[in-house]
Amino acid sequence: MVTRQPGPDVDPQLQALTSLSGWRQFASELPAIPELLDTVTWQDLDPGKRAHYDDDRIAHHSRLLVVQTPAVRDVVTTGRRLAHMNRAARFGRSGLIVSGPARTGKTTAITQLGKTIEVIHRRRYPGCADHIPVIYITVPPAATPRMIAAEFARFLGIPVTRQANITDIIEAVCGVCADVRTTAICVDEIHNLNIATRPGAEASDTLKYFSERIPATFVLSGINVERAGLLSGPRGEQIAGRYSMVRTGPFPRDAQWATLVAAIEGSLRLHRHPAGALPDLAGYLHQRTGGMIGSLLWLIRSAAIQAVIDGTEKITRTSMDAIPVDIASQASSTRQGKP
């Protein structure tokens, strides 16, 4: 049975990973890959069943396929090791920073780490439904200390009134985290912290204070964190001294890239798509996407959905030529030229 997408009556905010309900849904879901019917059965489906079958396949192709890339494995392995090391630490806990260009799988990597920690915790404490082992937040643009604290509170479901000062919010967050046994905190879009400004520096201090008060492993992720200035100056030196780093980047055009393309092709559910067609286009795909896994997934997922909608049931170079990719990949494609 295929996991359905949320209906129109479901509040999208409740599905967001930055809400407790959305995170729990993400951490617990195991979406099934729909069965590909044999040609005769498929062609004999009546219009209603055919539409239902196609909807299931479109939903499958629209979901972000998690590929166990070296970066994902490295982040999950390193993060779990740090979590074990920090379990008995009373101070000086170590954290992890995931840094790299856009669309290189940073968010996928840290959310998979969080999901892994959540699943392990649930298995270890099956009767503790009130536990919140993992928190996931994103840093708002031009973040201030109060905005950072409010993101924690929003995830935990702590009401934040206009009258509440930042100390009240911090104390409430730290108290709840202790009660619900939070062990990992994932902070995405960390590049939005501009420590060159006073509000940004104070927001960075607030995040550091949370890391000292909450006995959890902090995992930060952002675009080219080293260049964003987060590791510069006295504050940056403190962060650099407590965090290790995993860097993500574009894939080179090599055997690993071809293997990645083949793995994605293996998840397709299209009736006329010949096996090996996408690996044969590995060079073209690298040129179109600049080796960025996020751009690759976007292109193939879009082409697969279009193939179901228009009835061609296969992905070709011609069909992918009609699908625009992100601006960064287009610029890379122009620099590389045709394969």
UniProtKB/TrEMBL annotation:
This is ATP-binding protein. GO terms for molecular function: ATP binding; ATP hydrolysis activity. It comes from Trebonia kvetii. InterPro entries: AAA_22, P-loop_NTPase. It comes from the Bacteria. Residues 91-224 form the ORC1/DEAH AAA+ ATPase domain. Keywords: ATP-binding, Nucleotide-binding.
